[in-house]
Amino acid sequence: MYYKLLFFNSLMIGTLIAISSYSWMGMWMGLEINLLSMIPLISDNKNMMASEAALKYFIIQTMASTLLLFSIIMMSMKFMYQMNLITYFNLIFNTSLFIKMGAAPFHFWFPEMMEGLNWLNAIIMLTWQKLSPMVLLTYSNTTSMYLILTIMFSMMISGIMGLNQTSLRKIMAYSSINHIGWMISSIMLIEIVWFYYFIIYCIITINISIMFMKLNVFHINQLYISMNYHILLKLFFALNFMSLGGLPPFLGFFPKWLTIQTLIQSNMYSIAFIMILMTLMTLFFYLRITFSILLLSKAVLTFYTQPKINTNYIMAFNFITLLSLIFVTLMFNFL
Amino acid sequence: MMKFIFMMLMLVPLSCIKKSYWFNQYMYFFITFMFGLSFSFNYLYMNISYFMGYDLLSFMMILLSLWICSLMLLASESIYSKNYFYNLFLLVMIILLLSLVMTFSSLNLFIFYLFFEFSLIPTLLLIIGWGYQPERLQAGVYLLFYTLFASLPMMISIFYYYEKFHSLDFFFLCYDVKSFLLFMCMNMVFFIKMPMFFVHLWLPKAHVEAPVAGSMILAGVMLKLGGYGLMRLMNIFLTVGLQVNYIFITISMVGGFFVSLMCLRQVDIKALIAYSSVAHMGLVLSGILTLSYWGMSGALVMMIAHGLCSSGLFCLANISYERLNSRSIYLNKGLINLMPMMSMWWFLFSCCNMAAPPSLNLLGEIILINSLVSWSSWTMVFLSLMSFFSAAYSLYLYSYSQHGKLVSNLYSFSSGFVREYLLLLLHWLPLNILILKSEFLVLWL
Question: Its GO biological process terms (chain A) (predicted)?
Fold first, then answer.
């Protein structure tokens, strides 16, 4: 399995090439490197679901890359400027990026694929793989009507589709779609807000997914038996979901606060309103995950041994994701 | 101000020590007395440090939260004696207290909003963690989403206000906003929190499912958050308030009457007390919305009085719940045979609830009736109905729980403990002594 180390490195390099190249072709190349190194990372010869996910990922991402390549080649043609067609190809360009990041009307592959991954790959999919499409979206001409449409779709679809899921990976995928909506809205206005949002979203998501990985749970009902740890650890884990949903005293509120404020500054009241109310629905299914924890009483099974986890560093991580709203304004000094 | 915040922050590690329950409780009282010494006399802000400070309104509210939180620990002794996560309970309690004190002492609307939301989460943990029935999940979700549904539009409107007027400090919150939409967005969360009739449905649910500490904090302080926010914000809605406030006053007055009628046919003691607090807070809400001096002062008096009185009634309900394991009014009967001394406390608190002299409720009700009748003489109809029916359901509560035959399924029974009498005394004493120095309560404007 040592080849995964190699492909993990080339995955990183692909993203870095994509976001730091100064030509569109270099950017496309970076995306392809990134895509082709994700596939061996997903694949697992003992698990058919993983291979299926790898195949789905390959097909969808290749299609998106093709669209991307098509649009950048067409946009570089001379007749495009004469015939004023560039806005249409810009739409195609944005669409391909939306497919790559899994934003809402183009999201169908994303929860299906997440279902086949283990938690480490899910972490990569939820965080790192979002990075390059989003950075490229900031380079693109953000035609706001199309972006607003995508934001609204992301909000509504993630809120409604997440409601009757029992698989934690799918819930995390829909939560990711919801956050993509928020992040696109911040890309539309101020990129540094997107940067804060992305970093904080990644921190919280990684924290939650690592906890799921340590507990080895994949469905909501498994949480009822695998949550027998130290009571504070349980509680902080539950509060992480409220942080992800953006409830005020936690870190997750900070990026939402910044995004809403920039939206209001740009006089976009109704979209801020819709985004906030739709996020309440995601908050509802986050809260449903935490019910098993908040109820405090626990089921103890006789022949079930808890996996050993190192609580110290998880508690330290929790300290960051929960309490750092007080300190987070210090970020303004460094970024 | 910082010294009180630090005192509370240092209670966080203390609450993790085993068997430190009573020491924590003692420290809560200590903070209360320390805080009581720095009395704020009028509308001028005192002890300003960082973003916190308090005038008389905030002072009374903070004192009420500190007092109710100390009494909550005194009331939920069973959590300690049954060893049901009491360290976690202490932790949640101190976080709740901290959030409430920060809410009431913040000088900035956004900071106020932040801690207002913050106080929801420990309350949710209290209800879901230490409640009784499985339905507490539903109650918790109701509580959270009713408030969040209205409070997130409030956040948008706070930012809008900031864009227009460039300051959110309460001191500078004096620009008249002439927009009904903004009025609704800003104030709906307070209407829900109060709760106004029509959006009160979360309250009886939450009360019925909450443990005694959750009920006490809900009735005692959380409802007052709504009134406090309205009193601070009415400043910027004077013009639009004059135009639309009659709608909400009417809803509250008529709703208060309906809710009083609903009280008369409750079979759950806690639900009865919860509905009665909807009626009383409707009175407070209408008093604030008259935008008059009398209304504002009366609202403060009534909120203090209602906080102490309904919290005491919830304690009484819990005292008989711990002995009979039921809150049904059909099973909680004839208690005068078993606990004659407790029967006196039932009587005293029922009297306070129906605003009998010399309770603070009486003063609050008189001032509020003054403000409302001078606002429109038509309110006399529903004011008299509400006053009459509040006496009716208080007597219903008292006579059904104390008189009559004992229920026959009692097996073992202990009469009241000294802790419980102390708990009730500490509710009742400020409620009836404060009226002697009540001029301070009406000086905050």
Answer: mitochondrial electron transport, NADH to ubiquinone
